[in-house]
Specification:
Two copies of one chain form a homodimer.
Chain A lengths: L15 H8 L6 E2 L12 H19 L9 H15 L8 E5 H13 L5 E6 L3 H8 L4 E8 L2 E2 L1 H11 L3 E4 L13 H12 L4 E5 L16 H4 L3 E6 L10 E5 L3 H15 L4 H13 L2 H26 L5 E2 L7 E5 L6 H9 L3 E2 L1 E2 L12 E5 L5 H18 L2
Parallel strand pairs in A: 1-12, 3-4, 3-6, 6-7, 7-8
Antiparallel strand pairs in A: 2-9, 4-5, 8-9, 10-11, 11-14, 13-14
Helix pairs in contact in A: 2-10, 4-5, 4-9, 6-7, 11-13
Chain lengths: 394, 394
């Protein structure tokens, strides 16, 4: 029987990256393809202790249904951290706990996007956002990323002409490029938002992972009720727990998000919220984050040095000050997908840039992850990619 | 600034029940409003042991990202149970783990429903399904429920005339009515599906909780690739864990569900999947379920006897053989919402029927939950509702 799927499913494809990750399951492959945090970021023993405590002290509540908004002390912890770390005027009622920040993208898209609505994103942009948004059939416009952040002229022109409902961006150690917006660029983005009807969706999964340079203020601080800030515990405690959040001072948006969250999964896993809240109460998160940053800074340096040693000079790479990714650009006309076919034959994987663009194929860019490989694998894998590049780019 | 929400948000309201539950937070209120499992159903100590074991034996994997489809041994356990308990021809690849079965409803709606598509449901029907489906702007048609199940004539006529994409039903101890479809009714529903383009969505959150009478075969067994069967661990292990599943032999549907699941939350909480899988491996789930059923059977009997003692004879009630709810119908013309206002003033709560219907208000029906109240609260609360009914129905 011919299935009668919804129109939104036409052309919907499984995540390219998740399909690549299946290829990389072979342990003989050196993979820079994933976006997996290093196991050092999982506080296994402390989670053990917290689980034992919450089940012992309050087991029957910990395993019961709970509220859509999320566990109040966890929301309070997140709000307090925004206040102390960034001097943001945020309270627990401005926080909604979501099933990972991926769910936040889906909920935001659901409350805002009608078919053919304009949405503005980065070029290249986070593929998980593209995937979430496209389910609601918007027209996705993109503004280029430069080393200092978003192309303000292009973004301004698109906001003026297309009046997008949302501007989605990842200003810290962006996925896929690793680029961080400068203070000036952030101010300019905030100014664009002020003069528009566009809501800023500022995604910040990697913000805590700065291993060099200075922290930058969230753009959110400058845009008040026209902003939505997303966060996640995936990169600093555990991605398996699927715990992220939405922060907004706009109570109308918050109200709508809670309504659609009820229909989406009633509430976020409460058992795990309780474990995490207990962990945060009894441990020094910042000390834990320092350990992660020390390792990632080292791994990034290791990969960067190998790239300088092995890659042809015609390949441009970003110099991330935090996060998990380096972005590589071959000269125009070459295809990273072609390159991938050649390196995977030599058991080295990365992510070709295609899925980070809207409707483009065979782009010359690709993404390297450095957080989940040993020093020797980084050296060996980058040498193989470099050798392949030297042949391919001739 | 005027927010520019999507059209689907017009009229979207927060779940009526969750709003009622907030009122019931007052511990002085006797509440038959919730759908909360009794704490006896939470195996706190065994979950403690399983958590300790999985974190000790495989901590860094347990806290890492995982696959969209779900943890294979958990999917295998579910498939094996279908095979042994119902002789269903199901394998692990026919199972997708979801963030509660509520998420399954959202994912199914997302892959199937375009605006104005016809969907067929029960009258009255599960409000969480109404809430999920309405986000995709279908036209919801309903067929009446009788004591023996779905009104086959009415459902058949609607399938013939409206050609609905989905028929959604809860054949075991339905929410809100507690009604169970007979074997004959199930056969007749399967026959309707066979002669149509309609996909059966059979939701079964309470099926394991039969405390009297005989188990009935899932309709799913008769409809092959035209069926989707939903299940959940919420009522037999823990709702806080948000672990449900989709089962379908239709690989095209399964493939589309995985694609939208990626965009919705990447994958279901893996930490909790591992804990649950370990729990299921090391414990006797059926012995645990027996305990729950013994209590619920007792509570249902207790409430039923109180109803016979205190309610006017003009109020008709269902006689559930399992599950969590009794459904009450006052004579036509009376409003359960009015009744609710009167009983809540006397500190007794239930759920007026309105949210279980599509676009109806002030219906004369209401739902009583018996699983989370003591014998004495059941006696006392039903006496107060009965007394109020005697005055109200005069």
């Amino acid at each position: 029987m011919q299935q009668r799927f919804a129109k939104r499913m036409q052309g919907a494809q499984k995540s390219f990256i998740r399909e690549i990750l299946k290829v990389c399951a072979d342990p003989k492959i050196i993979s820079f393809a994933g976006g997996l945090p290093h196991p050092i970021s999982f506080p296994v023993e402390a989670i053990q202790v917290s689980t034992e405590r919450v089940l012992r002290e309050d087991g029957t509540n910990v395993l019961q249904y709970s509220t859509t908004e999320g566990y109040l002390p966890l929301r309070q912890w997140i709000a307090d951290r925004y206040c102390t770390r960034w001097d943001l005027d945020v309270t627990a009622s401005d926080i909604l706990i979501t099933t990972g920040s991926q769910q936040a993208l889906d909920l935001i898209a659901k409350i805002f996007i009608d078919p053919d609505d304009a949405i503005l994103m980065e070029y290249p942009g986070y593929l998980g956002a593209i995937q979430s948004f496209e389910m609601y059939q918007p027209v996705l416009y993109t503004a280029k990323l430069h080393d200092e952040g978003l192309d303000i002229d292009q973004a301004g022109k698109l906001i003026h002409e297309k009046n997008p409902k949302l501007l989605y961006c990842v200003p810290n150690f962006q996925n896929p490029t690793g680029i961080t917006y400068t203070a000036e660029n952030r101010k300019a983005v905030a100014k664009l938002i002020h003069g528009s009807q566009t809501i800023l969706v500022e995604d910040n999964p990697y913000g805590e992972l700065r291993f060099m340079g200075e922290d930058q203020m969230p753009i959110f601080k400058e845009v008040g009720e026209n902003g939505i800030l997303l966060g996640s515990f995936s990169k600093i405690v555990s991605p398996a727990m699927r715990l992220g959040w939405v922060c907004t001072k706009n109570q109308e948006i918050m109200d709508k998000l809670c309504t659609v969250k009820q229909g989406a999964d009633l509430h976020t896993n409460y058992f795990t919220q309780r474990v995490l809240a207990d962990y945060l109460q009894h441990n020094h998160l910042d000390a834990h984050i320092e350990e992660i940053k020390r390792l990632y800074g080292h791994q990034r340096q290791c990969m960067f040095q190998a790239i300088q040693k092995y890659f042809p000079k015609s390949v441009k790479v970003t110099k991330p000050e935090g996060g998990m990714f380096i972005w590589c650009s071959m000269p125009v006309g070459y295809s990273a997908t072609e390159l991938f076919q050649k390196t995977i034959a030599k058991k080295v994987a990365f992510v070709p840039g295609d899925p980070f663009y809207v409707n483009e194929a065979n782009v010359p860019t690709f993404r390297l992850n450095y957080t989940n490989s040993s020093d020797s694998d980084i050296e060996k894998g980058i040498a193989i990619i470099g050798e392949t590049l030297h042949t391919y780019l001739q």
